[in-house]
Sequence to fold (294 residues):
Amino acid sequence: MTLGTLWRISRPPTLLATVVPVLVGTVAAAGSGPISLPLAALMAVVGLLIQAATNMINEYADWARGVDTPESIGIAGVLVSGELGPGSVRRAAWGTYALALVLGLVLVAFRGPVLLLLGLASIGVSVVYSWGPNPISATPFGEAVVLLFMGPLEVLVSEYAAAARLTTEALAASLPVGCMVALILLANNVRDRDGDARRGRRTLPIVLGPGRLPWAVDGLIAAAFAGTALLVALGLLPVEALVILLAAPRAWVLAREILGPSPGVRIVPEAARLHLLVGALLGAGLFTGALTGR
Fold:
């Protein structure tokens, strides 16, 4: 397997979904005291490796169940094309998990066994998300799991890795992060719902149906933006965090595209860009709030 092929099966466009929670957690840590930039950077690498391995497992598992076809969107395509065999993809996934675990042990050496337990939990969830007779990815619970693990959990773990402390500000900041990454998955499942339904999958858009889908789409967006405003009003986030409201019009346009009669393939990369924008604005807001002393 070449490095180029390994890079493809890691699905590079999706990896930014890990960068955002690590960034927000690190900035939140910096706002409350000194941090270790090397450990923060190592946390980012470990997080990226776990997500890359998750993508590889997903590539294999969906191919094995016949979910992926040559017409599928958002896959590396190495299995359906015959470019790689399933064994190669499995070995790449387990090797990437192993590398994440080895590097994670460096974090554990500095920050204690709590990070080991959380890291193992993250790996376990990432495997059962795609693997098994009834993976989470084929159920209505995928968005909730992603929101929790790539929102509060990853933000707080990143803060702890950077500074060996946890703050209510980081927990509050994880709300819009988690909502936006869940929106990426929801957009993906909306895009794939027809094919998923034919294969017996029961993802959230299929279970909700067109009539109730707006509850999920608009609910995630409202929770991210209105929720942040409420957290600022409660004093849990600095007023500078309201800068994320600059992304609200873009979120509204995206929501209408997702809920439209024929949502196109672009809704997923658009959701990913919105997640990145919200994360960047939120990070800037937290940093500015720390500099001004709130």
Q: What stands out?
A: The chain has eleven helices and no strands.
